[in-house]
Structures are given as C-alpha cells and as structure tokens.
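Practice set, problem 2.
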Amino acid sequence: VQLQASGGGLVQAGGSLRLSCATSGLTLSRYAMGWFRQPPGKEREFVAAISVSGGDEYYEDSVKGRFTISRDNAKNTVYLQMNSLKPEDTGVYYCAARYRVVLFESTGHDFWGQGTQVTVSS
C-alpha cells in the first residue's frame, strides 16, 4: 500500500494550493481519509477528514470555510483544496487512511503518506 501526497509548495498569504493524495494497493472506497499537518516545532494535528462515502466532511475549526476535502474513488485519489492560506497553515501535510472509520487523532490510522511541505509567506 502506498499513499503519495503532492501539491505542496511556497505560496503567499491569501493564495491557494491543491494537495493530492494518490493511493495504490488498497480499495480506496473502503477507507475513510484524513489530512493532518505538522507545523514547525509542533505536534501533528488534524486538518480535515472525509467519510468512506464522501458524504461527510470534517474540518479543524481554523480551516473551516477555507479548506475543502474531497475524494475520487475511481481515480484512487483524495484532495485538499486550500484557499485563503495563512502563515499559520505552514507545515508538512500528510494524508492518512483508516478502514471504514473517520479518525480525528493521528493514532490508529492504517496507512500514512510521506508528507508534502506547505509554506505560506506573509
């Protein structure tokens, strides 16, 4: 199983990025998916999650209204559209998969991607 996160980069405050998490070796339609981030010098934290069906989305309070998580099971890919980026959004972003169940904590996920760096300059 592999989760490949991509799409990070350097962007000015107010800008946008779209992260992708390409999966292989698993049946994505059976997994709830999440995005987490690790700011510099801090612990990994929850950002967003989406249910198996895609019908339910969950967001950390600071990203509500700015970030949108989505999934395309046919393409085996999960996305995180990030708009109105702020310097405090800076960090390494990871995607994670959990069989059937949405998790808001880092622990308990079945698989993790390698992370993609997002840097937002002021």
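Problem 2, part (b): a different protein.
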Amino acid sequence: VQLQASGGGLAQAGGSLRLSCVVSGTIFRINTMAWYRQSPGKQRESVAFITSGLTTNYADSVKGRFTISRDAIKNTVYLQMNSLKPEDTAVYYCNVKGWENSGSNTQTNGNWWGQGTLVTVSS
C-alpha cells in the first residue's frame, strides 16, 4: 500500500492550501484516514481524521479553519486549510488505517503513512 501526498507549499498568513493524499496498491478496505503534522523540534500531532462513516474529528488548534474530506472512489483524503497561521507551518503526513489484500483471499490490517508534504506559512 502506498500513500502519495501533495499540495503543500508556501502560503501567506490568512491564505489557503489544499492537501491531497492518494492511496494505491493492495488496499482492500480503508477505515480511518487522517492528517498529522510535525514542526521542527516538536512531536508529530494529529490534525484531523475521518472515519469510513464520515465522522470527523479535529485538533482544537485547527477547528473552524481546516476541513477533512475523503473520496471513497478515488481512495483519496483531502485537507482544506483556510485562514492559515504561521504556527501551521509543518510537514503534513497522511495516515490510513485499514486492510490490504495479502493473497489467497485473505486480508491483513495495517497502518500506513505518506511521505509528508511541507506547508510553510509566512507572516
């Protein structure tokens, strides 16, 4: 299973960016899709997640500014980031929990990470 994240870049404070993460490979079923971020010198933190039933959850620091969504047909998760702040600067990672095909009509559960995409917000 591979995760390819894109959409990071440079934005001004108050601006917007949209991150995407496409899941490919031997994925069988996707349960939870999520975005995490890590700033220099800090631990990786959860930003938002969305379940297969479309329940969403956000970190307090991004509530009202970020929106997570998913496209089940495209196996893609998005993170719309509005009203960006300099403190949103970080490497953003997508994460997927689910099941992959492991041969002979069997599936194995897994937890997969994308490669990270850098978001820089200037003041």
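Answer key, part (b): The first strand starts at residue 2 and ends at 6. The mean pLDDT is 96.
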